[in-house]
Amino acid sequence: MNQERIYQILLAPHVSEKSTGLADEKNQHVFKVALNASKSEVKQAVEELFKVKVEKVRMVNIKGKTKRFGGRLGKRSDLRKAYVTLGPGHDIDFVATH
Question: Whole-angstrom Cα distance, residue 61 to residue 81?
């Protein structure tokens, strides 16, 4: 898989209280991914980008909410998240220390 496709699949880490707890307790990391990304593509992208061993990937589709902006109706974008479980002894550190 080329670098361009990796960055098209993995959009950003999803940072929340829940995802931070999962990273600490269960060695799982949560990523926002492209709507057309498959589990195998996410697994390969994480392994190549972070040089870790991925045990399993779970995907969640989140439908965008319908919101009202003044008198007009609008819709938030749909979102897809990937819960990536890493192998024992592997970890991803998002904090860059210089």
Answer: 7
Per-residue pLDDT reduced to its tens digit, 60-92: 999 999 999 899 999 999 999 999 999 999 998
Chain-centroid distance of CA 72 in Å reads: 32
Q: Which domains, ranges and CATH numbers included, belong to the chain?
A: 3-86 (3.30.70.330)
Task: Judge contact between 59 and 41, C-beta under 8 A.
Answer: no
CB distance 96 to 41 below 8 Å: no
- Report CA torsion sign: 47, 48, 52, 53: positive
Summarize pLDDT for 11-25 with one digit per residue, the tens: 999 999 999 999 999
Task: Give pTM, 2 decimals.
Answer: 0.88
